[in-house]
Amino acid sequence: MGKDIPLGRIAGIKVDMDLTVVLVAGFYTHFLATNQFPIGAPGLSTTAYWVTGVAGALLFFVSLLVHEMGHALVARDEGIGVRGISLWLLGGVAKLESAPTTARSEFRIAVIGPIASAACGVAFLASSYALPSGGIPGLIGVLFYILGYLNVVLAVFNLLPAAPLDGGTVLSSLIWSRTGSQATGMKWAARSGLVGGAALVFLGLKVIRGNGTNTVNGYSLLLVGAFVLFAALRSIRSVPLYELLDGSTVRDAMSPAPPTATAVGTVGNFLRSLPPGTTHQSYPVLSEQGTVVGLLTAAAIRAVPDHQWDSLRVADLAYPLTRITVVRSDDPLLPAVQKIDGGDVRDGLVVDQDGTIVGTVDASALFRTLELRKAHLAAARA
Ligand SMILES: [Zn+2]
């Protein structure tokens, strides 16, 4: 929504926000300065209320950032690239380059958010009790109490088992781990998202119609409910794809035992060494010591005029290992392909549990596997 405003990097992770955050921060500052503070810490100057109000709005977004940083750092720990964190109207989102490939990894990435919010909540509440009452310290104490309460509410709310809330993802990962089927986990999390979203919308409408004093809460519930509902609908639509690919691993789609190229050799020599009729589209590049140092792709070879092949070294044309996505042969196919697709080279290396290279895989492998599965299912039904 709107245009992203870059805020910089934290622990190497890009953070930005959109203009709705300014709107929410302004509204929240106003609410604190004119409503909460004069009641909680009476008798102080308007300036004190407004300055503390601005600090409160800032700290509120800092706590949202802590929640999202939790997701981002654990994702990075799980080997998943993080595009960045965006703050917007309804909070924040940590944008990952690919979906987790295991139930355990999905669980860890999701559950850390509410844990981070709960930790923020406890820290704010403890600080508020440590501050003396009265005067400016008392005002700060009131602010910390409100922030502590909000963070605890955020932690609990995010644990509601309704996708796309963190609790929905936790539910999905638990079902995935119990049944071994990612599609089943997604399906139930999306269904609970539909129910949870509808319940929030209903609750919001009830609050708005009920009494005039709490309409802001009512509209917030309505907005979040609608967001959950639409995200759950979107998620329900992608379930058939996951069902079709359920149980498909990288092994099913990879090109096994690819021919290898030596880094010091020429492209011409390598091409002449290829077995006739080879269908491989990418080739691991080995150093003189036999370790993998990169990946040579057929597309890169085709991009060079053929009269240059004999003067061009493989090492100069191949992609270095740092630019190649490495996936495991037992990874589920869909997230693995997403991971490769998120990188800048469309071909990935496939390793087994010991890290030995067993194949290569490219993004189009997903579509070939999908077509095969569809054909297979059609044949089974016929
Ligand atoms: Zn979260």
Which helices and strands appear, and what pairs or packs with what?
Layout: E1 4-10, E2 13-18, H1 19-40, H2 46-77, E3 82-88, E4 91-96, H3 103-130, H4 135-158, H5 166-179, H6 182-210, H7 215-245, H8 250-253, E5 255-256, E6 261-262, H9 267-273, E7 282-286, E8 292-297, H10 298-302, H11 314-317, E9 319-320, E10 325-328, H12 333-342, E11 347-351, E12 357-362, H13 364-381
The ordered H/E elements are EEHHEEHHHHHHEEHEEHHEEHEEH
Arithmetic mean of pLDDT? 87
pLDDT < 50 runs, ≥5 residues: none
**Using only CA atoms, what is the Rg?**
26 Å
Q: What proportion strand? A: 15-25%
Main sheet overview = 4 strands, mixed
What is the strand tally? 12
Number of domains: 2
| Annotation field: number of helices | 13
How far from one another are the termini?
47 Å
